[in-house]
Design a protein that fits this description.
The chain is mainly α. The chain is built from seven helices and three strands.
Length: 128
């Protein structure tokens, strides 16, 4: 799965987000209608992106009266893989170094830091 997910482009990711939000199958018309709100892509562009996603094995197409598309990779799987890939690439696999970088660069406000503290406290409970 990781190899497939790593090959999703930014444009393809926009299509994947539409499919994830749908929580089921969508026709090309349904995908196009949603994407009209955020992009000015032609139908042919969307078809090309869907074909590529199908070829990569991350989207399935089922022929009914028209083709319906559904994701084969969940948003959680994608997020988990890309987050771990980022940590591996930029921080030698250390999530601690990622957090330290965010704290050091002042990218987190006080509220976000407090939320992280709460998450870390919850994480302490898993050992008990």
């Amino acid at each position: 799965m990781s190899k497939l997910v790593s090959r999703i482009t930014d444009s393809e990711l926009e299509v994947m987000r539409v499919l994830w939000q749908a929580d089921g199958e969508l026709s090309l018309a349904g995908i196009r209608k949603t994407l009209e709100q955020t992009s000015n892509w032609e139908t042919s562009t969307i078809k090309t992106l869907l074909r590529r996603l199908c070829n990569k094995g991350v989207v399935a197409a089922a022929k009914k009266e028209v083709y319906y598309y559904k994701p084969l990779v969940s948003e959680e799987e994608y997020t988990e893989y890309t987050t771990q890939s980022l940590i591996d690439r930029l921080y030698s696999g250390s999530a601690k170094n990622l957090v330290a970088s965010l704290l050091g660069s002042k990218k987190l406000d006080d509220k976000e830091i407090e939320e992280l503290r709460t998450l870390f406290k919850v994480g302490d409970d898993r050992d008990e």
